[in-house]
Design a protein that fits this description.
The protein is mainly α. The protein folds into 2 domains: 52 residues; 249 residues, MetI-like (MetI-like fold, Orthogonal Bundle), CATH 1.10.3720. Helix content is 77%, strand content 0%. The chain is built from 10 helices and no strands. α1 packs across α10 and α7 runs antiparallel to α10. This is Phosphate transport system permease protein. Belongs to the binding-protein-dependent transport system permease family. CysTW subfamily. It is found in: Cell membrane. It comes from Kocuria sediminis. It is a multi-pass membrane protein.
Length: 311
């Protein structure tokens, strides 16, 4: 009898605990959505005067979209350059740490990668503008002289090295820890039985990785890349310090171009009136771009999560 009563009390307490935890989880989820909606509403209301103002009153005198469009292109180009550089390096480093390096090397390398994520962005920007930019000038001269027929490397190269390509390299270094750390965690979670089965069938280590590890981690790698893309799109101080802003240009070795985040950081302290509304409207555009990127990432992950070559 006493055992039955105790079991009922335990079950009742368990159900109460489940209900409390469920309520707290639901509240946290609703809070996140409420904060996101509040931010979007604030940006929209503060940006509304910009959308209603005459085109000649907007910076540049040609309307808001003519003002913001070059910065949208610059933001996307800088982020794409960073992803193109950081994604293969990050995945390869993660593979080296998880499947090739001995433990005495893998752990220190992992610690260094994690340490890179803790460095403030302004430090990256200061290093980029004082060290990296000047060291890239000879490389830009070579690109312009030998590959100048390609629009991306056309025209006289920058003498300061503060170009969109330099900004992309700095962003690549900044997002490298995100891709590497997340990929490494995914690679080590690959079922060992799958890896051992591939090796037992005569596969080389690379074939085993290609057949089991990479298919198993593919959705997670996509998530890591998209998370890194969000960081690159919204990066402010590093780009503001490294990039010499100017008119939109297709050349990556010339000074010019600008990103939305850097434009806001450089002009917000002195802005007021309609100019302040312009910058908040630019922030709204960046908010929408980041939201769309994350929605696309979730759609890609949902599409491929049902099938994995390691299943």
């Amino acid at each position: 009898m006493s055992t039955t009563v105790t079991a009922r009390k335990t079950a009742s307490g368990g159900r109460a605990g489940d209900s409390i935890f469920s309520g707290l989880s639901l509240g946290a989820g609703v809070l996140i959505l409420a904060v996101l909606a509040a931010v979007a509403l604030f940006l929209f209301l503060q940006a509304l005067p910009t959308f209603q103002a005459p085109a000649e009153d907007i910076s540049g005198g040609a309307g808001f979209w003519s003002y913001i469009w070059p910065m949208v292109i610059g933001t996307v180009v800088a982020a794409v350059i960073a992803l193109v550089i950081a994604t293969p390096i990050g995945v390869l480093v993660a593979l080296y740490i998880s499947h090739y390096a001995p433990a005495r090397i893998a752990k220190p390398v992992g610690y260094v990668i994690d340490l890179l994520a803790a460095i403030p962005s302004v430090i990256y920007g200061a290093w980029g503008t004082t060290v990296l930019a000047s060291s890239m000038v000879p490389f830009y001269a070579w690109l312009s002289g030998n590959l100048g027929f390609i629009p991306f490397f056309a025209g006289p190269p920058s003498q300061t090295g503060k170009t969109m390509l330099t900004a992309g390299v700095v962003l690549a270094i900044m997002i490298l820890p995100i891709i590497t750390a997340m990929s490494r965690e995914l690679f080590v979670q690959t079922p060992k039985l799958h890896e051992e089965a591939a090796l037992a069938l005569g596969a080389t280590r690379w074939e085993m990785i290609r057949m089991t590890v990479l298919p198993f981690a593919r959705p997670g790698i996509v998530s890591a890349v998209m998370l890194a893309l969000g960081r690159a799109l919204g990066e402010t101080m590093a780009v503001a310090l490294v990039l010499s802003s100017g008119p939109l240009t297709a050349s990556l070795v010339q000074s010019g171009n600008q990103t939305i985040a850097a434009e806001i950081a450089l002009n917000f302290p002195e802005a007021y009136g309609l100019r302040l509304s312009e910058l908040i409207a630019a922030g709204l555009i960046l908010f929408v771009i980041t939201l769309v990127v994350n929605m696309i990432a979730r759609a890609i992950v949902a599409r491929y999560k049902e099938f994995s070559g390691a299943n």
